């Protein structure tokens, strides 16, 4: 509990005449009190023994109203036992406040995630990206950043000529009308299977035609772009993911071309004998990379460079990319070129993440050769229906909860070994377990009309829950700092465990009035924290399960 820690740090600083920071106050486990202060650092600063300093701290701080008792342990540990009501009051106040105690940041932050390519359905690889990106943008918003979430579609470059050419060869208006994504994808696959060198060349010409603004090419491209966005929208809607804006590589393509001239003039880029343009980096470990092909077309990296400059001009202070680790080198090179271009008002950061491994054969694919994101969402819903014994009909929300938690609870850089059994377990460490604990708390409240109040005395079991609730703001701060929702996910799981043990041992309905009021207050606070925590993970908090 940051507030209380700060309180203690301030009091200690004044009593000892030595610097005491928030981080100097520890949270011991078990019987050693609510907080502990190791006097060793201050002792060496003041040239006294830790034991003496600890004694001094004890004598002065024991006078404080909110300190119940102080014990000295080991070489110079000051262990604080606080007044439980005081502590609970601080926790409840914090939970009740608008920012819930979470450190508030400044600045305009762009959070880019998802960013699928044109004419292809999102696949299982987009699952972790979507879930993580969405949670990160939610977290950052709650931490006070002015967030714009962006879906930057891969809608430019040589690949897109293939779909257009495929359509010219085998396109079927009726099929496109009925199931545009299926048809586009079918054409793309067929072209890649059947195309010889000559056909590939024609496909490249079609890409060039889009870039050159040829009417027919642009018209088809626009249709395919629109169809892709509409198709993906269904998945986003199911996942409750909403973007503040949808852009794409095409938006910055023209600027990318202009940048090549600028880079050459400034001596940042070099021209090769074949007419291609490349960049070399000051950092020798970073391999040089091509910026413009010999046929004149620009590249992914060039467009990303134009995009950073665009975002800087739009006034963003932060530029966050949630993109898989595979693209580490790309982003290192991108940020290095941007620096050479003098971009320095915007802070760019690549937020990468490990792979998700599915159990073999655990999902049947509707597209034959790829597992689409939609296949995964459908499977999750079906599996959740199987466990939804009461048939309440929120299988979609429970399935999503399972998928999202499984993706978020593993720390961001680590790979995930995904298992349906674990993801859907009601026993703990899963999305449904969190949803269920939250629902259980709500259902107790429906059964009592007592108002929550800080009445009577907290027992140990209740106090454990108070303290666990009090960790919420710090956990969110840490998650924001590390750009890692796992810190929130795992905290919520631990909190739910404490809650469930409280629930089993502390009766609410059949209890004395004071106890009931106090327990109702605890339950209300548990609901507030888990509602918010689930919201930050993008997991739906339900009313019934
Ligand atoms: N469209 C790319 C892909 O599917 C991801 C884009 C990531 N964002 C970026 N600004 N480069 O691989």
TrEMBL record:
A motif ('HIGH' region) lies at residues 116-126. Residues 434-545 form the DALR anticodon binding domain. Residues 2-82 form the Arginyl tRNA synthetase N-terminal domain. Its EC number is 6.1.1.19. Keywords: Aminoacyl-tRNA synthetase, ATP-binding, Cytoplasm, Ligase, Nucleotide-binding, Protein biosynthesis. It is found in: Cytoplasm. One of its GO terms (molecular function) is arginine-tRNA ligase activity. It catalyses: tRNA(Arg) + L-arginine + ATP = L-arginyl-tRNA(Arg) + AMP + diphosphate. The keyword DNA-binding does not apply. Coiled coil: none annotated. Belongs to the class-I aminoacyl-tRNA synthetase family. This is Arginine--tRNA ligase. It comes from Candidatus Nanohalococcus occultus. The lineage of its organism: Archaea, Candidatus Nanohalarchaeota, Candidatus Nanohalarchaeota incertae sedis, Candidatus Nanohalococcus.
């Amino acid at each position: 509990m940051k507030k209380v820690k700060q309180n203690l740090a301030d009091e200690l600083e004044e009593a000892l005449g030595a610097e005491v920071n928030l981080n100097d106050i520890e949270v011991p486990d078990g019987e050693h009190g609510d907080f502990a202060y190791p006097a060793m650092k201050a002792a060496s600063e003041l040239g006294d023994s830790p034991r003496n300093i600890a004694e001094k701290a004890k004598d002065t701080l024991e006078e404080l109203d909110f300190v119940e008792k102080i014990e000295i342990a080991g070489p110079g540990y000051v262990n604080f036992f606080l007044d439980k009501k005081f502590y609970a009051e601080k926790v409840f106040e914090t939970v009740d406040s608008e920012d819930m105690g979470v450190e508030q940041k400044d600045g305009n932050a762009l959070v880019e995630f998802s960013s699928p390519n044109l004419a292809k359905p999102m696949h299982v690889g987009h699952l972790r990206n979507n879930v993580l990106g969405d949670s990160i943008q939610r977290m950052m918003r709650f931490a006070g950043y002015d967030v714009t979430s962006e879906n930057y579609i891969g809608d430019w470059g040589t690949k897109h000529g293939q779909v257009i050419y495929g359509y010219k060869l085998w396109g079927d208006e009726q099929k496109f009308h009925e199931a545009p994504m299926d048809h586009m994808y079918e054409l793309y696959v067929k072209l890649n299977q059947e195309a010889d060198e000559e056909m590939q060349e024609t496909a490249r010409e079609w890409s060039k035609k889009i870039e050159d603004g040829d009417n027919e090419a642009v018209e088809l491209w626009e249709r395919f772009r629109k169809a892709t966005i509409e198709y993906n929208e269904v998945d986003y809607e199911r996942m409750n993911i909403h973007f503040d804006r949808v852009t794409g590589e095409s938006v910055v393509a023209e600027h990318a071309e202009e940048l090549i001239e600028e880079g050459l003039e400034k001596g940042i880029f070099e021209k090769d004998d074949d007419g291609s343009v490349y960049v070399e980096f000051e950092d020798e470990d970073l391999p040089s990379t091509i910026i413009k092909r010999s046929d004149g077309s620009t590249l992914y990296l060039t467009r990303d460079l134009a995009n950073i400059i665009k975002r800087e001009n739009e006034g963003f202070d932060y530029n966050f990319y949630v993109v898989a680790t595979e693209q580490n080198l790309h982003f290192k090179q991108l940020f290095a070129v941007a620096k050479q271009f003098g971009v320095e008002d915007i802070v760019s950061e690549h937020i990468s993440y490990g792979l998700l491994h599915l159990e073999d054969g655990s999902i049947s694919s509707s597209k034959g050769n790829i597992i689409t994101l939609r296949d995964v969402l459908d499977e999750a819903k079906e599996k959740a229906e199987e466990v939804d014994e009461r048939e309440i009909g929120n299988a979609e929300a429970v399935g999503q909860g399972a998928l999202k938690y499984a993706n978020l609870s593993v720390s961001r850089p680590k790979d995930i070994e995904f298992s349906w059994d674990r993801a859907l377990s009601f026993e703990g460490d899963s999305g449904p377990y969190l949803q269920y604990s939250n629902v259980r708390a709500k259902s107790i409240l429906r059964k009592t009309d007592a108002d929550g109040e800080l009445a009577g005395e907290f027992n140990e079991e209740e106090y454990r829950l108070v303290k666990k609730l009090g960790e919420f703001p710090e956990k969110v701060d840490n998650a924001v700092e590390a750009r890692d929702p796992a810190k929130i996910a795992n905290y919520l799981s631990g909190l739910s465990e404490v809650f469930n043990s409280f629930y089993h041992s502390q009766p609410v309905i059949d209890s004395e009035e004071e106890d009931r009021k106090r327990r109702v207050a605890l339950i209300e606070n548990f609901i507030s924290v888990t509602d918010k925590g689930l919201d930050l993970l993008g997991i739906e908090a339900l009313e019934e399960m």
